[in-house]
Amino acid sequence: MTVKKQNSDAVASELKEKICAKSAVVSVVGLGYVGLPLAVEKAKVGFRVLGVEQNPERADKINRGENYIGDVHDEELKDIVQKGLLTASTSFDCLTDADVIIICVPTPLTENYDPDISYIVSVCQEIKPRLRQGQLVTLESTTYPGTTEDVILPLLQESGLQVGEDFFLAFSPERVDPGNKRYTTKNTSKVVGGVTPVCLDVAKIFYEQTILNVVPVSSPSVAEMTKVFENTYRSINIALVNELMLLCDRMGLDVWEVVDAAGTKPFGIQSFYPGPGVGGHCIPIDPFYLTWRARQFDFHTRFIELAGEINVQASYHVVDIVSRALNQAGKCMNGARVFVLGVAYKKDISDVRESPALKVIDLLKKEHADVSYHDPYVPALRAEKPYDWGMNGVELTAERLRDADCVLIATDHSAIDYDWVVENARIVVDTRNAAKNVKNHREKIVKI
After folding, report:
1. Architecture field, domain 2-217
2. Which of 104, 199, 282, 406 is catalytic?
3. Which of 17, 317, 373, 411 is most buried, by CB atoms within 10 Å?
């Protein structure tokens, strides 16, 4: 026993020394919105980073120094690629050379709204035959509490190596907010939970090399729960203000005025705003990971599930508002020309994952409206589940605005001149209060 203890201590010490000296080789599996910014941060401080990306087009772009993620600076990516600090491959064979393996793959939902961790499992099946003594494996993909210890750990230990002795395993959830200029990968606090105390120690030291504040917690399950709680918190508060929106609409009150007035209180309240629904990878999905896991403990998260229902209802409410606005102008939805401004899930980014604008467009199409859209960040929409249609964006011109029976602001991109939009449009349905500061022709604006 004593020899084994000394041996395992030596393995951990050697890896920590490599990490602190930046001589450790890092592999990031999945170079998307989470993985690529993380890979760039590691390479910027001197780590050699081997990216694994199953999309060959993306892998080729990285190797040419071409960026495709908005939160990554073009020049920084080009610089680290030219220095040989970042390369990408579609093959998992590079994992044998890695001292640290970070998993950043998608965790979507099934058609029945159950967690789909098949990408995580698939990656771990690739890691298992390549796992060697002295490696740290961390998972950053959002998942339900228990995934790291109940799913990943047994898979990796099928290699014959022991966690905390031969290799080290931790969960550290991503906290990426696409388009956020203030909080980036580097200055956003990083929660880390290790399977064993040694695993936590190694993982904490690794993340401290590039992240300003690392927050250790007692287990991977605590870290996993932390992530889903953060996004469930946002989902519930958005649902609260969306329900207030529905009530204010019934009562003839301006929900935006109410929220802004309440926000002047210096304590006890945080402002959330209504909208056409919730989007992005996190808020529409993460609460379902928690509700699914809760059912395994004979617990039903009624409050969380209700919030999800209300946020879905918000998209239907937008379509009702459009229909009402058209009716007041003597138009019916069938055949009406609806011009949608913005399809990304939030302003000033190109990310359309779970965007409520797509749900609204789908509902409008089902009502036989003639829908077109403009988004300066999204030139085209591909036909992807659950939608069986695709669309190309069109140019934003005064003629298009005038020709539309209704202009629907679904995403409030900063690059759009809303004074000009309102001036040229017949009717503007504003789901984001984007036209808040427009002075003229306010009679054309219908706010949700």
Report:
1. 3-Layer(aba) Sandwich (3.40)
2. 282
3. 411
Please give the average per-residue pLDDT across 8-23, as a whole number: 94
At 283-333, the pLDDT tens digits run 889 999 999 999 999 999 999 999 999 999 999 999 999 999 999 999 999
pTM of the entire predicted model:
0.91
Classify the C-alpha dihedral 213-32-218-2 as positive or negative. negative
Q: Are strands 167-171 and 380-381 parallel, antiparallel or unpaired?
A: unpaired
Distance CA 291, CA 293 (A): 5
332 annotated active-site: no
Three-class DSSP labels, 349-374:
CCCCCCCHHHHHHHHHHHCCCEEEEE
**Contact (Cβ atoms closer than 8 angstroms) between residue 364 and residue 338:** yes
233-447 topology per CATH = Rossmann fold (3.40.50)
Nearest to 52 by CA among 150, 156, 134, 122: 122
Residue range(s) occupied by CATH 3.40.50.720 in the chain: 2-217, 233-447
Question: For residue 205, which of 214, 193, 195 has the smallest C-alpha distance?
Answer: 214
Among 8-12, 92-96, 155-159, 238-242, name the one with the lowest average pLDDT: 8-12
